[in-house]
Amino acid sequence: MKKEIIAGTALAGLGIAAFALATRNKPLKTVGHVELEKYLGKWYEIAKFPQSFENGCTNVTAEYSLRDDGKISVVNSCTKDGQPKTTEGIASIDDKESNAKLEVQFQWPFSGKYWIIALAPDYSYAVVGHPNRKYLWILNRKPIMDTMTYNHLVLVAASRGFDIRKLVKTVQTEVSENAFSIPNGHS
């Protein structure tokens, strides 16, 4: 029985990876509409594709606020080597119909695409990616996320063509009430 479960899990994983590869060349689908006022505020990074600019970071958060010029102020924070680290940027909306496609700039002249590909109806979680599928973040309003929601969002990312084998959970040492920790692995 145990061998059948392991074999079934392995086959399911291969199926998800094959599906992700098949959808990788399709245009990245975003959510239909984002109400910016609801999206603003503090988000905790639950998982991500590792990037050099986040090496050694724990307790990663992003905070968004509306500027007077209509752009969005972005403040990314983390703990690195026991010290707080903050990076500030500016986001502009690329698709004003959906508000789901943004361009974020932390250091001129470099900017990156920030596309919202999944969003809870109550804005409690989000999945953000880049259309080249080399960047991916799972975000939550609390520092930890329940396992069912996390697994659902991993499947959403796979269905959008992201190689979820690259996904790494972010260490969040702040604990929130009524939240569950995510066990090792994606299932």
Protein described:
By secondary structure, this protein is of the alpha+beta class. The chain has a single domain (2-169), classed as Beta Barrel (Lipocalin). The protein is built from three helices and nine strands; from the N terminus they run H-H-E-E-E-E-E-E-E-E-H-E. It has helices at 2-23, 36-39, 147-159, and strands at residues 41-48, 57-66, 72-80, 83-93, 101-107, 110-119, 125-129, 136-140, 168-169. An eight-stranded antiparallel β-barrel has the order 1-2-3-4-5-6-7-8. The longest helix is centred in the N-terminal third of the chain and has 22 residues, at 2-23. Mean pLDDT is 86; it is low at 176-187.
